[in-house]
Amino acid sequence: MKHNQVQYALDANVLMTAHHDYYAPDLCPGFWECLAYYLQAGRLLIPDRVRDEVLSPPELVNWVDRVCSSAFVSTQTPPVVAAYVQMMDWVWGNDQFSPAARDEFARVADGWLAAYARVNGAIVVTNEVSTPNVKKRVPLPNLCNQFRIRCVNTYDMLRELVSSFEWGNP
After folding, report:
1. Which of 3, 76, 143, 146 counts the highest number of beta carbons within 10 A?
2. Which pLDDT score is estimated for 1?
């Protein structure tokens, strides 16, 4: 990979939603081939904590383990841990979020994903959307906005990677 190329750090929902819904492997194998290409090229990354959230279906888990292993990155570096602590402090210090939302945030990978992206200059890719006044959860885009981390959805990432999937007449 060239050093000036942008890297994208994937949220688990990018993979799970695509597999279950709009890019099911039997209907859109080109999407999965595209991901595999960019994972192997170093353009797409999957933080270890995000990998731990991909639990089903078994076909997706197997694909992730087989295809994505070279793209797994560790969140256990001192700079990432320090960034995560700053994010946790912001969440816990923000009265907007309910105690249950704060507890959930501490259990899920979102903070680790954002911390990795912040430290390494990656773009976060998620299907979540920013919800400014939410109380019952901490949306990943809200966290990214707070810490000036670029956050895009799957479609934006694909457009930026200049990917397209064409139908071939049978």
Report:
1. 143
2. 46
Kindly calculate the radius of gyration of the chain based on its CA atoms and give it in whole angstroms. 16
10-19 per-position pLDDT tens digit: 999 999 999 9
- Whole-angstrom Cα distance, residue 91 to residue 32? 34
- Rounded to the nearest 10 degrees, how much is the dihedral formed by the CA atoms of 158, 65, 12, 127? 20
Average pLDDT over residues 100-118: 97
Contacts of 141 by beta carbon, 8 Å cutoff, 6+ apart? 126, 128, 129, 130, 131, 151
Kindly write down the DSSP assignment for every residue of 50-76, as one continuous string.
HHTT----HHHHHHHHHHSGGGEE-S-
Question: What is the model's pTM?
Answer: 0.94
